[in-house]
């Protein structure tokens, strides 16, 4: 399913948490699902308008420039239907770092190892953030907690795998550079 099509379900899902303004929705996405779902914030308002036109979201003015969006029963039914469908294949994986590692033999000695080291350091920092997020969610009493923890723990597993790969690759590249 195209990212544009899945945006609607990200919005519907977020609105199950509570009614939100467009800005509140943007902030909630960044704070909750942002660790695994990157949404174009420019798509949020057109998506909200489309969902309202379809009767999946109801909108109420809060003031001259602010509107609150609330999921309807029909919107909940549509979200439930979508949740039961198989996910589309993930977007094509493209990693500039892996491309550089693949061709590292042609780089200056140590250049690509430095990139892998920086990548590892970024992952270590991400691991620390995930650990904090995991503790925060574990303390939350929401009935959604087990599901939220599952997504954070997926992120932790991916980051841990990336750190392990980085360490192994650094050993390999260091061995190659010393020859």
TrEMBL record:
A UniProt-annotated Pfam family: Vir_act_alpha_C
Residue span(s) of domain Transcription regulator PadR C-terminal: 94-173
Domain of life assignment: Bacteria
Xref: SUPFAM superfamilies: Winged helix' DNA-binding domain
Boundaries of every Transcription regulator PadR N-terminal domain copy: 11-80
Protein name: PadR family transcriptional regulator
Source organism of this protein record: Cellulomonas carbonis T26
């Amino acid at each position: 399913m195209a990212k544009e099509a899945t945006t609607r379900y990200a919005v519907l899902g977020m609105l199950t948490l509570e009614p939100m303004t467009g800005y509140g929705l943007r902030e909630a996405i960044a704070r909750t699902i942002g660790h695994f779902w990157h949404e174009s914030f420019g798509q949020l308002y057109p998506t909200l308008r489309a969902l309202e036109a379809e009767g999946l979201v109801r909108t109420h003015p809060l003031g001259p420039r602010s509107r609150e969006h609330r999921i309807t029963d029909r919107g909940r039914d549509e979200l439930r239907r979508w949740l039961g469908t198989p996910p589309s294949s993930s977007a094509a994986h493209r990693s500039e770092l892996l491309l550089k590692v693949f061709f590292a033999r042609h780089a200056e000695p140590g250049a690509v190892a430095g990139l892998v080291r920086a990548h590892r350091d970024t992952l270590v920092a991400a691991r620390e953030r995930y650990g904090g997020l995991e503790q925060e969610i574990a303390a939350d009493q929401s009935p959604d907690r087990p599901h939220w923890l599952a997504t954070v723990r997926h992120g932790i597993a991916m980051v841990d795998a990336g750190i392990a790969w980085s360490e192994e690759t650094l050993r390999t590249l260091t061995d190659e550079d010393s020859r």
